[in-house]
Amino acid sequence: MIQFNQVTKSYGTSNNALNNISFSINKGELVFLAGHSGAGKSTILKLIAGIEIASMGSTIINGIDLAQISQNQRTFIRQHVGIVFQDHKILFDRNVFDNVRLGLDITGLYNKEETIERVTSALHAVGLEHKIKTHPQELSGGEQQRLCIARAVVHKPKILLADEPTANLDRENALKILELFKAFHKAGVTIIISAHDETLLSDYGKRILYLNNGQFRG
Ligand SMILES: Nc1ncnc2c1ncn2[C@@H]1O[C@H](COP(=O)(O)OP(=O)(O)OP(=O)(O)O)[C@@H](O)[C@H]1O
């Protein structure tokens, strides 16, 4: 379902962010991306989401080479991808409901009733249904992360990408967030989670891809 063939990504600086990497991830897999700051984890996620394009090599999602498609097709692919961004991208002038609703904008086809149903169901899935009218500044760090996850899944994506979703959380809250991803995984979603804290990941018995300076190690 996700295939990288000899992918190199350069941002025009002296070192490549990714250097000739190849891997594939099957439909329904849960995979962790581990590695130091600057190793290239976010770059892999951005390539899968079609936010960035590979400089060399091919990035294939569901048999479609992202380098070969039109902007419209790219939007279509992105409708099947949910992203939990590293910098959260929470809008603090809107309440929880409106922040989650933003996740539906990429599809934009829902009437008011469907919108309410989808947002409520996403908030229920992350245990935030009681905070629907709350403003984000009144949420704890863990709750803000749950809000980001609800926004990422509200359009029911087939692929869920999460960039350092456990950063800045204590171990207890980080484990709760990982449990949430496990629940989406059980529901059949393909999930890729980046994290620099390898000790957190090792207990999970899932596949871990270790990155070091834009290449896989081990
Ligand atoms: N937009 C950009 N322009 C120039 N260089 C970039 C850009 N984005 C990333 N890089 C560089 O590419 C390399 C890989 O960055 P990337 O963000 O993928 O790493 P990361 O493993 O996600 O790091 P972190 O854990 O700190 O988020 C780094 O050297 C980074 O400085």
Strand proportion: 15-25%
**CATH class category:** Alpha Beta
Task: Tell me the overall shape.
Answer: globular
Give the tally of structural domains: 1
Structural class, from secondary structure content? alpha/beta
What would the CATH topology be? Answer: Rossmann fold
Looking at the overall shape, the CATH architecture is 3-Layer(aba) Sandwich
Instruction: Characterize the main sheet.
Output: 6 strands, mixed
Describe the structure.
By secondary structure, this protein is of the alpha/beta class. The chain is built from seven helices and ten strands. It has a six-stranded mixed sheet with strand order 6-7-8-3-9-10, with helices on both faces. Strands 2-1-4-5 form a four-stranded antiparallel sheet, with helices on one face. The relative contact order is 0.21. The structure holds adenosine-5'-triphosphate. Adenosine-5'-triphosphate is lined by residues 11, 13, 17, 35, 37-43, 86, 196. Belongs to the ABC transporter superfamily.
What are the defining features of this structure?
single chain, 218 residues, alpha/beta, Rossmann fold, six-stranded mixed beta sheet, four-stranded antiparallel beta sheet, 7 helices, globular, binds adenosine-5'-triphosphate
List the helices and strands and how they pair.
Blueprint: E1 2-9, E2 18-25, E3 30-35, H1 41-49, E4 56-61, E5 64-65, H2 71-78, E6 81-84, H3 96-101, H4 112-125, H5 141-153, E7 159-163, H6 171-186, E8 190-195, H7 198-202, E9 207-212, E10 215-217
Parallel strand pairs: 3-8, 3-9, 6-7, 7-8
Antiparallel strand pairs: 1-2, 1-4, 4-5, 9-10
Helix pairs in contact: 4-5
The structure holds adenosine-5'-triphosphate.
